[in-house]
Design goal:
Strand order of the largest sheet: 4-3-2-5-1-6
Number of domains: 4
Number of helices: 18
Distance between the termini: 64 Å
Helix content: 25-40%
Shape: elongated
CATH superfamily of the largest domain: Tetrapyrrole methylase, C-terminal domain
Radius of gyration: 28 Å
CATH architecture of the largest domain: 2-Layer Sandwich
Structural class: alpha/beta
Largest sheet: 6 strands, mixed
């Protein structure tokens, strides 16, 4: 008989991936089974290990993929089977998240469990809207209540007479559908009709939107704006602080939905820089990197790299695969000998330096043609060169170096293949929600994006990292709205900022 597994009731935070706790991330990475709600950040699913069973139980407004009693039974069943189960819940599992009920079920079944708190949208939502829930000029008391009670009770357990008289800030969750009913109840029980109130939906994400009004006007404002859940509401004088400290919604790319088509492993740098600027980033990888088909031939070329005068790297992926293979064969970096090293651009050079090797040559233009121009200033005749490349690379570097008299061997370090997985539903999300910009960082990301057959979103433009990528976009009838002046990720980020700034 197998020993029971532990069930972790984990708070996923309010939506911003940076607000997830380290303990939550650790639990997700170790989970055998992940039972999750309709998460504001589906990127959390990418933290799971291979083979993790992922079960979506829905639970947003009236859309419940699985009723609560069946969720309780599910986590008990999986835990009894000896699995490490993570029950992932938006916000904090114990703040209107029914985590207490689930914990009670596990306790009744005699199963071990752990509760991992998360940052609740009751606090984070107002904060990201520029509203402090406590402020010495306004209040020193905070009351949190739910706007969505159990409909089977037949009565309300919320004492609006007491709430209306209570001093300080009032925050309620899950109350958009009953907003008029709730605000009327406050007024009917003595609250001043002109009491400030604000509602923030999709709080802490780049889809965040906030409306403001008073208890008397907010329901009409919400109806006119077609304001829908999920949202958090704040009632009280603290709302007036928003005009001074509304920080999140003032970032330069706030409200812009930008698609990143790089590989999952490489998307992080661009995604982070765009998120830091306020963009709603959708990671929709169109390619993934696979090892070369000739594993032995690649390993032999890496092992013999010390025999060359130059090592030429034309991508960060090539650098990573080369040095991973090199250190699998050698324990000492000095085994590389003393070849000079060339990198096609700053991104590739940065990756080389991560392995503690210096770079001797970087071109002014971060493209294959630029690299050949840089080598023209060197005397490379009869020098041996190992060009570390992708299987699909253009022949410009090899042909160009050979034309300069160099003796060039091609070392195929990896293959670029179509990405077949869509774990976070990004493709369906693009079709349903559209985008303002789709970024492309290589010709292969362009080719494989169009091979997906997705309709191009209305009003959306393409952004290109460089001339080669731009040419491929034009070939597909989608000329880029802009091309990065510097053909690397910082250059692309700068071009994106400039593009939207000129259209503000």
């Amino acid at each position: 008989m197998s020993h029971p597994g532990t069930c972790y009731l984990v708070g996923a935070g309010p939506g911003d991936l940076g607000l997830v706790t380290l303990r939550a991330k650790e639990c997700i990475e170790l989970a055998d089974v992940l039972v999750y709600d309709a998460l504001s950040s589906p990127e959390l699913l990418r933290w799971t290990k291979p083979g993790c069973e992922k079960i979506n139980v829905g639970k947003r407004a009236k859309d419940h993929a699985l009723p609560q009693d069946q969720i309780n039974a599910l986590i008990v069943e999986k835990s009894k089977a000896g699995k490490s189960v993570v029950r992932l819940k938006g916000g904090d599992p114990m703040i209107f998240g029914r985590g207490g009920e689930e914990a009670a079920e596990l306790a009744a079944a005699g199963l071990p469990f752990e509760i991992v708190p998360g940052i609740s949208s009751a606090i984070a939502g107002p904060t990201y809207a520029g509203i402090p829930v406590t402020h010495r000029d306004h209040c020193t008391q905070l009351t949190i209540f739910t706007g969505h009670e159990d409909p089977t009770k037949g009565y309300s357990s919320i004492d609006f007479a007491q709430l209306a008289k209570a001093p300080g800030t009032k925050v309620f969750l899950m109350g958009v559908a009953r907003l008029r009913e709730i605000t009327n109840a406050f007024i009917d029980n003595g609250a001043a009709p002109n009491t400030p109130i604000a509602l923030t939906r999709w709080a802490t994400t780049a889809r965040q939107a906030t409306i403001e009004g008073t208890l008397a006007t907010i329901a009409d404002i919400a109806d006119k704006a077609k304001f829908a859940s999920p949202a958090v509401a704040v009632i009280g004088g603290v709302v007036t602080e928003r005009k001074k400290i509304n920080w999140f919604e003032k970032r330069p790319l706030f409200g812009k939905r930008i698609v990143v088509t790089r590989t999952r492993e490489q998307a992080g740098e661009l995604s982070k820089s765009l998120r830091d600027l306020g963009a709603d980033v959708v990671e929709l990888p169109t390619i993934r990197i696979e090892p070369p088909t000739d594993h032995l031939g690649f390993a032999e070329m890496v092992a013999g790299a010390h025999e060359y005068d130059w090592l030429v790297f034309s991508s960060p992926n090539g650098v990573e695969h080369f040095f991973d293979a090199f250190f699998a064969a050698y324990d000492d970096a000095r085994s590389l000998g003393n070849p000079r090293i060339a990198a096609i651009g700053n991104g590739t050079a940065k990756k080389i330096r991560e392995y503690r090797f210096a770079v001797d040559l970087i071109p002014e233009r971060f493209v294959a043609e630029g690299l050949i121009e840089a080598f023209k200033k060197q005397n490379v005749e009869n020098l041996t060169m190992l060009w570390v490349k992708a299987a699909e690379s253009r022949d410009i570097i090899g042909d160009g170096l050979a034309a300069l008299g160099a003796i060039v061997d091609e070392c195929i370090a990896y293959r670029t293949v179509p990405e077949t997985d869509d774990l976070t539903g990004a493709r369906a999300g693009l079709v349903e929600d559209g985008a303002d910009l789709i970024t492309f960082t290589s010709g292969s990301t362009v080719e494989h994006f169009f091979n997906l057959g997705l309709p191009w979103p209305a009003g959306c433009v393409a952004g290109s990292i460089g001339p080669v990528t731009s040419d491929v976009l034009r070939h597909h009838g989608m000329p880029p709205a802009f091309e990065a002046a510097k053909h690397d990720i910082p250059g692309l980020t700068a071009a994106i900022l400039k593009y939207f700034k000129t259209r503000r």
